[in-house]
């Protein structure tokens, strides 16, 4: 009994470690589900296969039967990643058993169990069960398969002292792992949401002021040449007063999209605040031509709001960094922007 409890805690620790690490590394592709891209399901199945291999190594044998909690990673793979995920887990499980035991009757019995498990995953995939119900189905089914294998093959005393506690621990451990997976997934989703809200401008989808300044500091610290564009929407207050703030929001979203479409791959564009945007590029040779293309692109774009055409333009202050602090470069670009405004707007000035 003591050995069963010891193996239980080792197995649970292995599953928890692999599951936590997998969910953290895959946090950018949430939710992991049967409808996820195939690569996502394969990776999750591979991770559960690694867990199954480690559980096989940390198992013990009773009357020729290995005792561990491999049913849990199998159930997790089937629940989260469907037939593809569990298929990958099964292949890795079989490879592990071959490495440990070679070809044996025990392996053939396990193979039959795994094939039945895979078949069940196709059936469950068609029934569209809720994730919790699907997980319960897999755990119960897997436990019943193990029960069928051991019933009549081991003495009753061993069944009571070893396998009955094993079944109870399997159910307890399975639900504990599933609950942990749900909690980790929920926390990582909330973390991603709060991170996005803290760094992304909700209106335009561009980096917000905080993130823009962070990236600006990174460019400054790189020591490479860079160009700074301070961009302002012309007569934006007049637009809001005439058409309302909803029209202003629509214009900002569209201009933000236009700037992002024309931003070079080596640069970035962010919303600095209000109707002001900032763009940074590492290509200083064509900076003026790029600024003029931005002005022209905004001027030639048709902005519509409730069937009304709203002609829009932008003014740009451009400054090239010459190994001076970013604040100095920003002040020059800002002064150039004000000059562009004073000289009639819809143009570029270099500071």
Describe this structure in words.
The model has no long low-confidence stretch (mean pLDDT 85). The strands form 3 sheets. This protein has a 5-stranded mixed β-sheet, sandwiched between helices. Strands 1-2 form a two-stranded antiparallel ribbon. It has a two-stranded antiparallel sheet with strand order 6-7. It has helices spanning 2-25, 38-57, 71-101, 105-127, 131-150, 156-199, 209-222, 236-243, 245-262, 287-300, 326-342, and strands spanning 60-62, 65-67, 227-233, 268-273, 276-281, 304-305, 308-309, 314-320, 348-350. It has 2 domains: 2-198, Arp2/3 complex 21 kDa subunit ARPC3 (Orthogonal Bundle); 209-350, Reverse transcriptase/Diguanylate cyclase domain (Alpha-Beta Plaits), CATH 3.30.70.270. With 351 residues, the protein is of the alpha+beta class. The protein contains 11 helices and 9 strands. The termini are far apart.
Key traits:
351 residues; alpha+beta; Arp2/3 complex 21 kDa subunit ARPC3; Alpha-Beta Plaits; 2 domains; five-stranded mixed sheet; two-stranded antiparallel sheet; 9 strands; 66% helix; elongated
What layout of secondary structure does this protein have?
Layout lengths: L1 H24 L12 H20 L2 E3 L2 E3 L3 H31 L3 H23 L3 H20 L5 H44 L9 H14 L4 E7 L2 H8 L1 H18 L5 E6 L2 E6 L5 H14 L3 E2 L2 E2 L4 E7 L5 H17 L5 E3 L1
Parallel strand pairs: 8-9
Antiparallel strand pairs: 1-2, 3-5, 3-8, 4-5, 6-7
